Amino acid sequence: MRKANMSQAVFTPRENSVVDGIVLPPGTDEVVNDLKDCEVREDDAWVVTYPKAGTTWTQEIMSCVMHDGNLEEVNKRHTTYRVPFLEMSLPEPIRRMKNMPHTYKLVSEIPSPRVLKSHLPGRLLPPQMWTKKPRIVYVMRNPKDLVVSFFYFMRMMDRSSMKIAETFGEFFEEALEGKTFFGPWWEHYLYFWRKRHEPNILVLRFEDMKRDLRETVEQISRFLGKNLSAETLDAITEHCTFANMKKNPMANQDTLFELPVDEKTGDRVSFMRKGKVGDWRSHFTVAQNEAMDALIKEKLHGTGLTFDFD
Fold this sequence. Notes:
Belongs to the sulfotransferase 1 family. This protein has 310 residues and is α/β, with parallel strands linked by helices.
């Protein structure tokens, strides 16, 4: 399988999409409009996250659980194909050349039960999500680490095809104003936080997953209706450690792309960068930390939602 080159300029720059005030990658507005007719199944299992909140990690756990811990079978197909990214498609010129539909149209051909993922905020997800009520695992990450990880992720993107902040300071300001892709993180989080008591929704924190991965695997297994043995849960936990996923060509995105080299370090960048809690401390200035603390206090006051930052 030939890798896609993330560093080469291939497409004509396009304006970022905006839907209901939410900034989205170019062309996503077309997908969101078409998703209004997307068929959702009651036996679907969805992972929904804000970007860089633990998506790839969680989808791999869910995929392993839905395969009843058959890791040999899991490793036969890349996670991208086991867990399709609903709103992400190849750019329109390539789809036209290869006569390929959007990803959301391809998922209709996947047999049940499907495991699907999305970064869309709750109000832009397919309307059937709220009538068919599939199981949804929603993951949040403390916003300080989230912003840092999201910045590094965006640095991998092709600047010729979309508008991207050049520096961390610029990206930080966009995050404070809720102008990064997929909208304000606090609105994204709170939409699902307020639904956390609904039986088909499981809300997790990235920091809790780091603290006790084995407990998280068991929690997800129970939520998805599986009664797996302790031995199977242990095997899934080991399979889904950051170190093992990073070196597993079927469990991370690095094996699909020719990733660019970091201009400062000379190292090749990675979709799975550090996966740690507290990395924000090596990036935030005192002023940025104070600004983020003030924003968190303003947006989360009275909601009961809190985060660990270390």
